[in-house]
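Researcher: I'm preparing a figure for a lab meeting and need a structural model of a single chain. I don't have an experimental structure, so a prediction will have to do for now. The sequence is pasted below. Please return the structure as tokens so I can convert it later.
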Amino acid sequence: MVRLTRAQAQERNRAKVLAAARAEFAERGYREAKIDNIADRAELTRGAVYSNFPGKRALYFAVLAELAESATPPAPEEPALTVQEALGAVARAWVTRLPLATDDERGPSRLGMDLIPEILADEFTRVPYAQLMKLNAILLGLALERLRPPPTPDGRLVRLAEAALTVLHGAGQLAAAAPGFVEPFNVVRACEHLAGLDLGDRWFVAPMLPRVSAGDEPWSPPSPVPDAVTGEPAPLEADGVVAVLGLHRLSAVEDAVRAASPGAGVTAVVVTGEPAELFPLARLALADLCGCLRQAFPRPAWPRLRVVYDESGELAAAAGVREVSDATETALRVEGGRVTLRADGYGACHAAARPR
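Model: Understood. Here is the structure written out token by token.
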């Protein structure tokens, strides 16, 4: 019998806990699920469950994140050529996941019914979730802009993306709360018609003064990590801007995208002071949207913004961030494998990306 290493044993136990939790949540619902039952299903001790997850809510977020990330959307049969077509394709991908009135009340399709109530119950989760929704709107807006560039240099389509996401998330909540009320075809048509709205969306830079310092230091990021947007390894060593952002500062990455020179890459390195519970929530929120993006948009229209999760802390350390929190905002300009500029504090993303 092959003896497992400690790391292998931990990974195996974590997988057993996740599988057991998914079965428990699907059968009993989140409210009635018990940690003791999950431990029994996994054939582990209660302590083993808590050694992997700090509580039931963190475990619930992790189960939903794993499901969202493991879904493999098909590539678009015909590329979306217009904003209207893209919004319709995103909506179609979204509504296929909605629970139906005929679904079992405790079936797998209703597994996520308690997500929003759990987020609403605590500011600890509400504030990060709001920023995650902002990041999703930025990603969707940037993709829409690749199909229909705004008519003015400061124009953007992020508000349009926010409107579409509001419709889709609202449809999801109603499908769970009022089975049979939501007509998926109407949701798709509504999102398509949003394309004609002119919301007067303009980009402006808030007056903030971060700490900025020029330099010439080697940039040695750890081995490639997956980009949450494309699902492929993120080229962290490439020229561009690397922004280390806490979950309360995610929307600041748009400062870097808007200020960067054309063609420059921007990578958001997501960090948090509460990784056990908030990283699964972050992975879930982004996977829900990015799966739809990859299904709805042709590859050339994918946003030029990369998002990676720094669960180990290695990326933050490589960027010189000794301690991370949900308020972290540090940005580096990388050129030719060297860090040529560093900015810290609110406004760092804009300062690091702005051409000198």
